[in-house]
């Protein structure tokens, strides 16, 4: 059942799907999540710098870690540049293939390009022609 989030109510992209899950399904999800989490932690699959979707970590622990690293670099007399990006809607109206070609031309390595391509594949692609936007 779609639940309205924000924006125009007529746009399906402004709704999020919600489904009622049976209790046995929820229990199974927790068992699988627990096993996967244990495997990831025991085998050091995720770097210590990962904060999103990690138990006991959040944007706040990420910010504290970042601030600590930056202040250490400044204390050592090293130059520090920081760029903040909000990419939540940045790719809605541009051609993904053109963006990937330009990133490759600017020297983005294969792994990073692959990550960007996978991320873009999950984004809504809208085409703007003559000032009219369509999905």
C-alpha geometry: extended
Order of helices and strands: EEHHHHEE
How far the N terminus sits from the C terminus, by CA atoms, comes to 21 Å
Low-confidence stretches: 126-135
- CA gyration radius, whole angstroms: 20 Å
Helical run tally = 4
Quickly give the structural class.
mainly alpha
- Helical percent range? 40-55%
Mean of residue pLDDT values: 79
**Most strands sheet:** 2 strands, antiparallel
What is the percentage of strand-forming residues? 5-15%
Cross-sheet strand order for the largest sheet: 1-2
User: What is the number of E strands?
Assistant: 4
Structure description:
With 135 residues, the protein is mainly alpha-helical. Helices cover 44% and strands 9% of the residues. The chain has helices spanning 23-42, 59-75, 96-105, 110-121, and strands at residues 2-4, 15-17, 127-129, 132-134. Helix 3 runs antiparallel to helix 4. It starts with a strand and ends with a strand.
Topology:
Elements: E1 2-4, E2 15-17, H1 23-42, H2 59-75, H3 96-105, H4 110-121, E3 127-129, E4 132-134
Antiparallel strand pairs: 1-2, 3-4
Helix pairs in contact: 3-4
Features of the shown structure:
135 residues; disordered C terminus; two-stranded antiparallel ribbon; 4 strands; 4 helices; mainly alpha; 9% strand
């Amino acid at each position: 059942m779609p639940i309205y989030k924000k924006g125009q109510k007529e746009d399906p992209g402004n709704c999020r799907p919600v489904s009622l899950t049976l209790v046995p399904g929820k229990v199974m999800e927790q068992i699988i999540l627990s096993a996967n989490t244990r495997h990831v932690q025991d085998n050091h699959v995720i770097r210590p710098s990962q904060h999103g979707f990690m138990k006991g970590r959040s944007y706040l622990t990420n910010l504290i870690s970042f601030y600590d690293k930056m202040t250490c670099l400044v204390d050592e007399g090293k130059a520090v540049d920081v760029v903040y990006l909000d990419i939540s809607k940045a790719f809605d109206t541009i051609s993904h293939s053109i963006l990937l070609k330009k990133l490759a031309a600017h020297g983005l390595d294969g792994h990073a390009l692959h990550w960007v391509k996978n991320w873009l594949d999950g984004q809504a692609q809208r085409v703007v022609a003559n000032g009219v936007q369509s999905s």
